[in-house]
Structure formats: structure tokens, C-alpha cells
């Protein structure tokens, strides 16, 4: 499984990206949207998610800091083709540019790792099919 992560500055754009994915062959069970919240556990949940997903501690902290201030859309893709389609959608809807460990500017991240169910950011924004 490939996890695709897009971080958005605007909640509306994250929701629109999620809705587009649902309308185009992706399912609710494979898409998570987590919006910036005022809950004290949000800080830890977002940090735990990126620490679980990324091996580089500095990169995980950077992604977590961006994600805590925005909205995170995560797609759990079943194939490389599906992952690339999801990344293209997230980028087209305005996923922000982040710098990866090698300082290359990237938008949506494709990470070949399965996210444990307990670490997923199923979040506070359920999608409707």
C-alpha cells in the first residue's frame, strides 16, 4: 500500500479534493481528512501520524508542524497508478509545497508504507459518498 499525503492551507480545498476523489473511483475507507482543530490531542495525533509514516525525525516534525496548522488529506492507495492519480488530484486542488529531506520542493508525498489503523488521521471531517 502507498500512502499519499497532501497538506492544505484552506480546509475548503481539502474537502473539495476529497469530494473529487470520492467521485472518481476512490472510496471513503481509503481517504482521511483531518482539519486543524482546537483540541489538545490534535498536536499529538498529527505528530504521531508523521512519526509513524516517516523515518526521518526532522522531516516528520516539519510535516507535523505544517499539518497542525492546516488540513491533511491522506489517501491509502492500492497501486502506484492509484497513488499517482491521488497525488495529482491533491496537487491540482492546492496541496502546499513542502521541502523533503533532500530540500527538493514537493507537494503531495507518496510514501510506500502502510499506516497502522490506530495511527490514521481519520480525523474530524467525515466524507460522504
Characterise the protein shown here.
- This protein is α+β, with helices and mostly antiparallel strands and 129 residues long.
- It has one domain: 2-Layer Sandwich (Alpha-Beta Plaits).
- It is 40% helix and 19% strand.
- It is built from 4 helices and 6 strands; from the N terminus they run βαβααβαβββ.
- It has a 4-stranded antiparallel beta sheet, with helices on both faces. Strands 4-5 form a two-stranded antiparallel ribbon.
- α2 packs antiparallel against α3 (57-68).
- It is globular.
- The two termini are 22 Å apart.
- The model is unreliable at 124-129 (pLDDT under 50).
Mean pLDDT: 81
Q: Report the portion of residues in β strands.
A: 15-25%
* Number of helices, counting only DSSP H or I runs of 4 residues or more: 4
The best one-word shape is: globular
Q: Got a strand count? A: 6
Helix-strand makeup class: alpha+beta
CATH topology annotation: Alpha-Beta Plaits
Straight-line N-to-C gap: 22 Å
CATH class: Alpha Beta
Amino acid at each position: 500500500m502507498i500512502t499519499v499525503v497532501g497538506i492544505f492551507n484552506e480546509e475548503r480545498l481539502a474537502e473539495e479534493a476529497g469530494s473529487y476523489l470520492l467521485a472518481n473511483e476512490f472510496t471513503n475507507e481509503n481517504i482521511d481528512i483531518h482539519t486543524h482543530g482546537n483540541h489538545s490531542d490534535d498536536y499529538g495525533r498529527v505528530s504521531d501520524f508523521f512519526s509513524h509514516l516517516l523515518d526521518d525525525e526532522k522531516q516528520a516534525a516539519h510535516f507535523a508542524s505544517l499539518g497542525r496548522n492546516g488540513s491533511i488529506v491522506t489517501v491509502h492507495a492500492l497501486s502506484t497508478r492509484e497513488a499517482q492519480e491521488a497525488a495529482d488530484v491533491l496537487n491540482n486542488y492546492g496541496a502546499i509545497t513542502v521541502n523533503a529531506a533532500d530540500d527538493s520542493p514537493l507537494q503531495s508525498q507518496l510514501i510506500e508504507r502502510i499506516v497502522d489503523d490506530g495511527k490514521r488521521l481519520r480525523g474530524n471531517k467525515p466524507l460522504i459518498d
